[in-house]
Amino acid sequence: MIKTKFLPLVLCLALSPLHAAAQTSVDEVVRLDVLDGGQTARGTYLAALRLTLQDGWKTYWRAPGEAGIPPQFSWAGSQNVAATAITWPTPHVFDQNGMRSIGYKSQLVLPIEITPKQADRRVRLRGEMQLGVCREVCIPAELRFDRALDAGAGRNPAIAAALAARPYSAPEAGVTSVTCRTEAAEGGLKLTAHIAMPPAGGAEYAVIEPGHPELWASEAEVSRDGAVLTVASDISKPGGGAYALNRSALRITVLGQSHAVDIRGCSAD
Question: Which UniProt keywords apply (predicted)?
Fold first, then answer.
């Protein structure tokens, strides 16, 4: 069974008092459904978690920014599940009380490709999603799901649309090179990435994910000089201690007004 350990939720910064959040029920603002997309040609199963949010409410991307709550998943109780792979649709950048957060409003369809342990046995997807939903206040939520998947289910348009809404890969976006340089900084390292790529449209925003759960990256500084986008962020380990930064595990997402780009790894600058 594949498990992701839940981390304690921290309510969003600069929000209304906690008692205001307690007055709003999670059931009033968000609903979770499991969508079935049948079996793929590879023998995996395709499903999705669909979150439907009330007007004015939002939830967060896997890297939610300084004012967001990262979602967590547990697949405990699932049957015949060897591995799960989530595809995140391109998120939106929100301004939240002077800080930026990254996430979704109205609805999020989160496709999941499931590799079964045994090809001839049925797959049951069961577990919990722990997330934050926010408006003027943030509410931590634990939403349970349980569904036996149908190998013969047909193509699901909502899942297909969510898969099509993913960020471009680096080759698809015309990225020709990605180099990174690190230097010592207070409390850790400063990472500077130079990305040769066409503009993603309008003001470009970038997120660096260090590729290790114990490392944290600050909000990135982004600038462009012609065909080269420069992205800089401070990498630190909360609580201190030595660490090594694996360039091949880095993930840089560039969010523009036209499209987003998902870049994996970088070479030494």
Answer: Signal
Which amino acid, 61? Answer: W
Instruction: Please give the Cα distance from 222 to 170 (Å, whole number).
Output: 18
What pLDDT was estimated at residue 23? 58
Give the right CATH number for 18-164 from 3.40.30.10, 2.60.40.1250, 1.10.600.10, 2.60.40.10: 2.60.40.1250
Q: What's the confidence (pLDDT) of residue 225?
A: 98
Question: What is the distance between the alpha carbons of residues 18 and 139, in angstroms, rounded to a whole number?
Answer: 9
Q: Could you state, in chain order, the average pLDDT of each consecutive group of 10 residues for the chain (269 residues)?
A: 39 40 75 96 96 96 89 97 98 85 96 96 97 90 96 95 98 98 90 98 96 93 98 92 90 97 95
pLDDT of residue 28: 87
Phi-psi region of 5 (alpha: psi -120 to 50; beta: other; left: phi over 0): beta
Write the DSSP symbol of residue 247: G
The model carries a pTM of 0.88
**DSSP codes joined into one string, 104-123:** EESEEEEEEEEEESSTTS--
Per CATH, which fold does 168-268 belong to? Immunoglobulin-like (2.60.40)
CB-CB contact of 125 with 36 (8 Å)? no
d(Cα 180, Cα 189) in Å, to the nearest integer?
12
